[in-house]
Specification:
Radius of gyration: 17 Å
Strand content: under 5%
Order of helices and strands: HHHHH
Structural class: mainly alpha
Shape: globular
Helix content: over 70%
Largest sheet: none
Number of strands: 0
Number of helices: 5
Oligomer: single chain
Length: about 120
């Protein structure tokens, strides 16, 4: 139960940060391009890289890593988890799996969004 509360608290913090920062960034650009979401995704990727880099170099507790990576970074953007998993595959020499993961995540993700939207639009 303690782990779930740590992750949930981190997710709350990350979600609030995501919304606030995304809105702040987007207001700085007069464009239809989603700079807010793009910025949050890139910042989240940098943050999760820091968390996992530190966890490998220090004696970071598993609880703190879960709070920071799964909680805050996951609440901030799940794109950071996708990026970290892809990087891990590449670092481990699994380039085929990394490429398949990137391609299938984007294609199936966009298709699933289209499918969900279409089902509700035409019903």
């Amino acid at each position: 139960m303690r782990i779930l509360l740590l992750i949930g608290t981190g997710s709350f913090i990350g979600g609030v940060l995501r919304y606030s920062l995304s809105q702040f960034i987007q207001t700085k650009f007069l464009s239809a391009f989603p700079f807010g979401t793009f910025g949050v995704n890139i910042i989240g990727c940098f943050a999760i890289g820091l968390v996992f880099g530190l966890s490998e170099r220090t004696n970071m507790s598993p609880e703190l890593r879960l709070f920071l990576a799964t909680g805050i970074c996951g609440g901030f953007t799940t794109f950071s988890a996708f990026s970290n998993e892809t990087f891990s595959l590449m670092r481990d020499g699994q380039l085929l799996y990394a490429s398949a993961y990137i391609t299938s995540s984007i294609l199936f993700g966009v298709f699933a969004t289209f499918l969900g939207y279409s089902i509700l639009k035409f019903i």
